[in-house]
Amino acid sequence: MLEQVAEGAAVCFAPASMALYYARPDLSWVPLTDVEPLRVAVAWFEGTSSPLVRGFAEMVRGLAAALREDEAERSDGESGDGAGPAQG
Question: Residue 61 and residue 65: Cα distance in Å, rounded?
Answer without folding.
Answer: 6
